[in-house]
Amino acid sequence: MKYKILIVAAIAISFAACQNQSQTAPTEVEKPVTVLELKKGPISKLLNTTGTAQPFFSANLSSEMSGLYRLLVNPRTGNPFKMGDLVKKDQVIIRLEDKTFENGIALETKEMNLELLLLEQSKQKDLYELGGATLIEIKNTDIKVINSKTDIENAKINLDKRFIKAPFDGVIIDLPHYPADVKVNQNAHMVGIMSYSRMYMDINLPESNIPYVQPNQAVYITHYMLPNDTLKGRISELSPAISNETRTFKGKIVIENADLKLRPGMFVKADVVVDKAESTIIIPKNVISTQRNRKFVFVVERGVAVARSIVTGIENEDNVQVVEGLYENDNLIVRGFETLREYSRVKIMQ
User: Fold this and answer.
1) What is the distance between the terminal CA atoms of the chain, rounded to a whole angstrom?
2) Residue closest to 261 by CA, chosen among 224, 235, 236
3) Domain 31-44+278-348 adopts which CATH fold?
């Protein structure tokens, strides 16, 4: 009887072992995933703000005298100046003609008078050395020469009022229409010019950003109408004072706009670069999973998903730097990781 019991028990144990072995047999289906082969690259930490781009220089020029209106020809185009034309500093855009005004200045007469005074001055110096002229006579002649030179200088300044010139390199943004040869009055608006190859924008930053922002930091400037262009700028000024009302501090950004893509008055976004790394492992932020205080991602090793604990560094809106836990050429799972477990079998999809 004892032997029968032992045989039955052995059979039962053997059957249970077979059942257990059948249950633990690998039956997991490969899960489809998409991977990203990691390469090193640059990343920047950015602080975002907005503001209105303003021209560095702007001028509205008015007539300083009355005269007949003459709009000149732009040598760049061969046509009369118009809005949108580029102009150089001191380039004449408009000329005003008034013969009575020009005759009243009598520049030629003043220049001839100076020539005579200079001859007299030279003659008196020679006489003074011979004792034929007094020091007072020489000084009086010197005064006359100085006054004559001043008269000529003032005459040239007054004659220069006939010309409406660009005060700096820029672009014509406003050019009121006047018929040719019509008489315009003094103080009439003639032309508006802006220089915006360099621009600036005033900003207000939250008090909490004080530790991260400093002068000369790089800035990226973007505008929705320029989706494929990012302009460069830098922080030129920062106020040390905090506003009691808004808890913000003021700053100024200088924008490089050599191709004139950005227009004065555009509302732009500015991303201040407060930290950066030039060559480092960068991954999308949305692939990171967390468990308690642990951050981890999945990589593919020999056909299975392996969870890697990581330590992160600089991050921006979309990406994050990994300073520990990942290496160049690792295959990071970027799609299909949500349902993975440690050592899940995976199939890489293209």
Assistant:
1) 66
2) 224
3) 2.40.420
H-helix or E-strand containing 258? none
Tell me phi and psi for residue 18, to 5 degrees.
Answer: -65, -40
Alpha-carbon distance of 163 to 37, in angstroms, equals 66
pLDDT tens by residue, the chain, 350 residues? 444 443 333 444 444 444 444 444 455 688 999 999 999 999 988 899 999 999 999 999 999 999 999 999 999 999 999 999 999 999 999 999 999 999 998 999 999 999 999 998 888 888 878 877 788 888 888 999 999 999 999 999 999 999 999 999 999 999 999 999 999 999 999 999 999 999 999 999 999 999 889 999 999 999 988 888 999 999 999 999 999 999 999 999 999 999 999 999 999 999 999 888 999 999 999 999 998 889 999 999 999 999 999 999 998 888 999 999 999 999 999 999 998 999 999 999 87
Q: What is the DSSP string of 39-65?
A: -EEEEEEEEEEEEE-EEEEEEEEE-SS
Nearest to 162 by CA among 65, 90, 81: 65
Give the residue extent of every domain in the chain: 31-44+278-348, 46-55+192-276, 61-93+166-178, 99-161
> Between 2.40.30.170, 3.40.50.720, 3.90.226.10, 3.30.450.40, what CATH number should domain 46-55+192-276 receive?
2.40.30.170
- Name the pairing type of β-strands 304-309 and 248-256: unpaired
Task: Tell me how far apart the alpha carbons of residues 347 and 285 are, in angstroms, rounded to a whole number.
Answer: 23
3-state secondary structure 121-189: HHHHHHHHHHCCCCHHHHHHHHHHHHHHHHHHHHHHHHHHCCEEECCCCEEEEECCCCCCCCEECCCCE
Q: Tokens for 21, please give them.
A: 């072995």
Specify whether the CB–CB gap between 217 and 91 falls below 8 A. Answer: no
User: Of 51, 44, 115, 101, whose CA–CA distance to 273 is shortest?
Assistant: 44
* Backbone torsion region of residue 158, taken as left when φ is above 0, otherwise alpha when ψ lies between -120 and 50, otherwise beta: alpha
